[in-house]
Amino acid sequence: MEAAQVFRKVEKIVCVGAGYVGGPTCAMIAHKCPNITVTVVDMNTEKIAEWNSDKLPIYEPGLDEIVFAARNKNLFFSSDIPKAIREADLIFISVNTPTKMYGRGKGMAPDLKYVESVSRTIAEHAIGPKIVVEKSTVPVRAAESIGCILREAQKHNPDLKFQVLSNPEFLAEGTAMRDLANPDRVLIGGENSVEGLEAVSQLVRVYEHWVPRERIITTNTWSSELSKLVANAFLAQRISSINAISAVCEATGADVGEVAHAVGCDSRIGPKFLQASVGFGGSCFQKDVLSLVYLCESLNLPQVAEYWQSVIDVNNWQRRRFANKIIAELFNTVTDKKIAIFGFAFKKNTGDTRESSAIYVAQHLMEEHAKLSIYDPKVSKQQMFNDLKNVTSSQDVDRLVTFETDPYEAARDAHAIVILTEWDEFLTLDYNRIHETMKHPSAIFDGRLILDQKHLQNIGFRTFAIGSASEQEYNLFGSSI
Ligand code: UDX
Ligand code: ADP
C-alpha cells in the first residue's frame, strides 16, 4: 500500500522576501501558473507598497508587464507575513544573505540572520504541512539549520510537517525575466526519504507548468546548495581569467576582444563570460566566492581557499589598475580635474549598484581629489550618494561629486569620460558634440570595451580601452601596481 501523501498539491505559494530574486521569480510563477496563488511578503512595508504601485521597486526589462497583468488576480504583495504563512502550501525563502561585516567570518561568510529569522517566523505561524524552499544563496548545509528550527516547532505540534528543499535561483539581473521563462536548468535538492521525495516532486510539478522535465535536475540537498556557489564561482573565475589576460594584451599589442573570440570558439571553452571589463560587480559573485573560500577554510582546505580567493584578488586589482591608468594618462594628476563617469550600475539594464566596480573606481579617483560628475540612466542620485559615502564620507561626496541626469552635461568641461557600465545609450551619443564642450586634450577610458576607438580618435579624443593597446603607444596600461 502506498504511504498517504503528507503535502497537499501546491495551490498557494508564499515567498518571503520581495527583492531582486523573490519579486521576479514569483511574478513568473504567477504568470505561468494561473491555477496557483502567489503571495510575496516582506517586512519592508514601503517596498510592498511599491510592488503594489505603478512604479515597481526594481527595474527589470519585462517585469512590469507581467506584474501588472497578474497583480491582484493570482499575484499578491502583502506585509501580513503570519497570514501568508498560515495559508501557504509552499514557502520560498528569498531573503538577502549579504557578506557578514562583523564577528566570526567577517568579510567572508554570508550572514544568515535573515534566513534564520524567517525560519523562526515560519515555525511560529505555520499550521499543517509546509514545504519550505531555500531560494536565497546559502552555504552548504544551511537547510539543516532551517530544518532544525522547524523540527523544534514540530515537537510541540504534531500537525506540523516540514520538508526543507534547496532550489537556488540562477537568474541574472537585467535578463531575469528571460532567464526565468527559459532557464538552462532548474535545480531542486531534497532529502532522500519518502517525504523528501514527495516534496521535491511537488515543486517539480510547479516548474513543469513551463519548464521541460529534462531541464529540471533533482539532487540531494547539499549538492544543490553547493552547485549554486560553484556556478557563480566558475562564472566569476572566467571573468577574472580574461581580465588577467587583458593586462597582458595591453602590454603586448594583442587585443583582448580578439583573444576572447579566438579562445571562446573552442566548443570546450565557449564564448560566454569572456568579456573583459573593469571588474565584475553585483550582489552575488563576490559574496558567493567569498562564501566558498570561507567554507574551504572551515574544512581545512587552504589550497582550495587560496585558489578561489585569487578570483577576488584579480577583480580588486583590475579595478585599481583601471583607476591608476586614468590617473597616469591624465598626466599623473587628477586633483581638481573634472572627470565624467558614464554608468554606475554593476551592469546594463539594471538599476542595481551592489558591489558595482563604479563605486571602487570612483573611490580611487576621489582619493586623488578628482571632481566626478556621474551619469547613470537608471540609478538614483540618492543611491549613488549612499554608495560613495560608504567608501569615503558624506563630506567628500558633497565636495567632490555631482550627479547629472544628462550625459552631455556630465561631460561638459570634463578632462575625461570614463565608461563604467555598458549601457546601450552610450553607443549612440553624439561624441562630436561632447568633444567640443570638454577640456582639451580630452580622453575617453572605456572600461567596458563598447566604443569604437577609431571613430573617437578621429574626433580628436585620446582613447584607452581595457585589454587593447592603444594606437598611440604600447604598454600604456602595463605598469603594475
Ligand atoms: C550572476 C549570475 O550570472 C546568476 O546566474 C546568479 O543567479 C547571480 O549572479 P548577475 O550578478 O545578476 O548574475 O549578473 P551577471 O550577468 O552574471 O554579471 C555579473 C558581473 O560580471 C557584472 O558586473 C558584469 O558586468 C560582469 N561581467 C559579466 C563581465 O565583466 N564580463 C562578462 O563576460 C560577463
Ligand atoms: P536578493 O537580491 O537576494 O533578492 P534583496 O535585498 O533584493 O536580496 O531582497 C531581500 C528582501 O528580503 C528584502 O526586501 C528584505 O526586506 C527582505 N527580508 C529580509 N529579512 C526578512 C524577514 N525576516 N522577513 C521578511 N522579509 C525579509
Tell me about the biggest sheet? 6 strands, parallel
Multimerization status: single chain
Determine the mean pLDDT.
95
Unreliable residue stretches: 473-481
Ligand inventory? uridine-5'-diphosphate-xylopyranose, adenosine-5'-diphosphate
Please identify the structural class as seen in this structure: alpha/beta
Number of helices: 18
Span between termini: 71 Å
**How are the strands of the largest sheet arranged?**
3-2-1-4-5-6
Number of strands: 14
% residues in beta strands: 5-15%
Large-scale geometry:
elongated
What does this 3D model show about the protein?
With 481 residues, this protein is an alpha/beta fold. 44% of the residues lie in helices and 14% in strands. It is built from 18 helices and 14 strands. It has helices at 22-32, 45-51, 63-70, 81-87, 113-125, 142-156, 176-181, 194-207, 221-252, 256-264, 285-298, 302-329, 357-367, 381-391, 394-400, 407-411, 431-437, 453-459, and strands at 12-16, 37-41, 75-78, 90-93, 129-134, 161-166, 186-190, 216-220, 338-342, 371-375, 401-404, 416-419, 443-446, 462-465. The strands form 3 sheets. It has a 6-stranded parallel beta sheet, with helices on both faces. The chain has a 6-stranded parallel beta sheet with strand order 11-10-9-12-13-14, with helices on both faces. α18 links the parallel β13 (443-446) and β14. α12 (302-329) packs across α13 (357-367). It is elongated, with a radius of gyration of 24 Å. The N and C termini lie far apart (71 Å). 46% of the residues are buried. The model is unreliable at 473-481 (pLDDT under 50). Bound molecules: uridine-5'-diphosphate-xylopyranose and adenosine-5'-diphosphate (ADP).
